Amino acid sequence: MLEKVEEFNMEKVIDEFEALTKDAERVQRETLRKILEDNASAEYLQNLGLNGRTDPESFKAHVPLVTHKELEPYIVRIIEGDASSILTGKPITTMSLSSGTTQGKPKYVPWNDELFETTMQIYQTSFAFRNREFPVKNGKALSFIYSSKQFKTKGGLAAGTATTNVFRNAQYKCAMKALQSPCCSPDEVIFGPDFHQSLYCHLLCGLIFREEVQLVSSTFAHSIVHAFRTFEQVWQELCTDIREGVLTSRITVPSIRMAMSKLLKPNPELANLIEKKCMGLSNWYGLIPELFPNAKYVYGIMTGSMEPYLKKLRHYAGELLLLTADYGSSEGWIAANVNPKLPPELATYAVLPHIGYFEFIPITELEQTKFLCVDPQPVGLTEVKVGEEYEIVITNPAGLYRYRLGDVVKVMGFHNSTPELKFVRRSSLLLTINIDKNTEKDLQIAVEAAAKLVAGDKLEVIDYTSHVDVSSEPGHYVIFWEINGEASDELLSECCNCLDKSFVDAGYTSSRKTNCIGPLELRVVRKGTFQKILDHFLGLGAAVSQYKTPRCVGPTHGKVLQILSENVVKSYLSTTFN
Ligand code: AMP
């Protein structure tokens, strides 16, 4: 059957966005009204005594701020098959699994068609702005996208990661065609049961369609870096497959073999060309444009916890542009990148006022109210102030009301009357023993400073995480590093000292000086350790598409800590404050 691909009207999408953002306050009121009306019969809302009121003031007065923990009893009932109107008017039939790398295990959040629609609205908005600046021709996207395992919950609901729910939606393919970015790999590869085999075949499809590839993408930038690190290992095997037109025996999934056999024909010329290109590169610099000469840019989320991969991504991308994708979560999309000319380090995301109702808790107030044990008072979308940091609160069309997402953003400016946000960090503190407070951003800064020392020896930190070790007195910070080669003990001791020095939080430095916190410990792990951690999360139902390395391994991450501990090859203690 022929699929109907709707023509994409760039100007119309941009005009609509301009109109909506000029009137963001009214659009927010309308969006809230619609969400509350559609779900008025939901037990959760009924119990809160809104009595049909849909204005923001009544909503704030009656509906409490919640986290996932408070909603869990309701979500559990849904998962177990209670089909009454619990959180939404129409019963929920599908669940998303968030990546859950912060808490150690994936969380269930409700998914419905409205969330799919908002996903498409975000995709279309950012594509319109992106394509105005950097047009892609009709071609293909080499998209490193993967489905998680889809399964049924105890009560018979379909469950998978949010990205999987998007990829599986019947309208997804059509929508991506309209955005001129259909994936060059067949569905069997995207939905394959084995991530390693899917990745290999994505690379192979990219090479087969190399002239047509207009962009290289993934949901999160980590997957792109991971893919090209893998390419470094398997490029000769890929060339052999192309030369002979026969898929390597390492691909064992029958459906993938069948689908790939339709694409793979003996092509010695292409194999020779790729081989020559690979051998001509210096340390793989500029690999992506070399392989895909018509690619216009590399696209994926590159901010927040993806920043540590930017350096490597730039290396592979050479002169090719890096464009960060949009801002959202399994709980719902929030904002689109409508300023694609900005490099990822300066990227902002403009909130779409019609895809959810958004509130913002000022971080300063959050700190004050914590001690007073009162609820913080969030402000509305159009009331935020430039330069201030906020924690985001989401109300979405899939049964989340005043839900604290746990992300901290900074308002950088306004697009008409909607704020442009910079992602700052997850709100939870990462490293704290007593009066010290260090976030994932502080850890990133420290790791970047210390990684510069090994960069001199042409080494790189492939990935990292941290842990608070209080098993002996005084407690101390532990940083785990995986590096791509051998570094001398002297150099690594220096890195360890540098890490310790780079946590400049006054609570930390004063505690270190008085030995209330012990010397920081750098533990170097075997190559491949972070791959094992990724595999562990995949086993729990996570998808590579949404994967984020946990930046702190706490008590809820028992297995991850075990993997790390079993793979430590060297460890160093800081002498910075001796
Ligand atoms: P998940 O839990 O898998 O649904 O991932 C959602 C989380 O990923 C968000 O709450 C953010 O912490 C992070 N995230 C999503 N988009 C971005 C972005 N554009 N920049 C930085 N972090 C992001």
Summarize the structure.
This protein is an alpha+beta fold and 578 residues long.
Task: Summarize the topology.
Blueprint: H1 10-22, H2 24-38, H3 43-46, H4 56-62, H5 68-79, E1 94-97, E2 108-111, H6 113-133, E3 140-143, E4 151-152, E5 158-161, H7 162-168, H8 172-178, H9 187-190, H10 195-208, E6 213-220, H11 221-244, H12 254-261, H13 268-280, H14 287-291, E7 297-301, H15 310-317, E8 321-324, E9 327-329, E10 332-336, E11 349-351, E12 357-362, H16 363-372, E13 379-380, E14 389-395, E15 403-415, E16 418-426, H17 440-455, E17 461-469, E18 476-483, H18 489-502, H19 506-513, E19 521-525, H20 529-539, H21 558-566, E20 568-573
Parallel strand pairs: 1-5, 3-6, 6-7, 7-8, 18-19
Antiparallel strand pairs: 1-2, 4-5, 9-10, 10-11, 11-16, 12-13, 12-14, 14-15, 15-16, 17-18, 19-20
Bound molecules: adenosine monophosphate (AMP).
Describe the structure.
The chain is α+β, with helices and mostly antiparallel strands. The strands form 4 sheets. It has an 8-stranded antiparallel beta sheet with strand order 9-10-11-16-15-14-12-13. It is globular. The relative contact order is 0.12. Adenosine monophosphate (AMP) binds at residues 98-99, 162, 301, 303-304, 327-330, 405, 407, 423, 426, 546. Adenosine monophosphate is lined by residues 98-99, 162, 301, 303-304, 327-330, 405, 407, 423, 426, 546.
